[in-house]
Specification:
34% of the residues lie in helices and 22% in strands. It is of the alpha+beta class.
Length: 151
């Protein structure tokens, strides 16, 4: 996958009283123009650059072209899109509807996910399906999984 913008890392931040979260400086540099905040997979929010958002739109339109159910999903998704400007303090506002979708109340995990930034509630992040969720939750992040150790 060729992409000009890459996002990596995990950052812990909190929503302020107005529903804004600080976007880390390393991630913020890629947003000279406003980004696009959308509902995304597994209950997180995705923040897209203009370039990556255009790619996402094209993928969704192709999927929806001949499928009325997919078209309705695209309609719902596009109705929820929020153009997110970054203020001088590096914060983005998250509308109440998107905060509700992602279960964001106070703490927010800001995750660099290669071609986008994802915003997660800590509870949703902890409950992600990793294939071996029972053992994964007990294992420190740096400890290898059995698949990584076994030949």
């Amino acid at each position: 996958m060729a992409t000009s913008t890459r996002f990596f890392g995990r950052y812990e931040h909190a929503l302020d009283l107005k529903g804004r979260v600080i976007l880390p400086a390393k991630l913020r540099t890629h947003f000279a123009q406003p980004g696009f905040l959308t509902p995304h997979l597994e209950g997180c929010l995705a923040l897209w650059t203009n370039e990556e958002f255009d790619k996402e739109i094209n993928l969704r339109l192709v999927e929806a072209e001949n499928d009325p159910v997919a078209r309705n999903r695209v309609r719902d998704w596009s109705a929820a899109v929020f153009e997110a400007e970054i203020d001088r303090q590096g914060r983005i506002a998250i509308p109440p509807s998107l905060r509700g979708y992602a279960g964001l109340e106070q703490e927010v995990l800001v995750i660099g996910m290669i071609n986008r930034v994802e915003l997660w509630s800590p509870a949703s992040w902890a409950n992600r399906d990793l294939g071996d969720a029972e053992t994964q939750s007990e294992r420190p992040p740096s400890e290898p999984t059995e698949e990584q150790v076994s030949p």
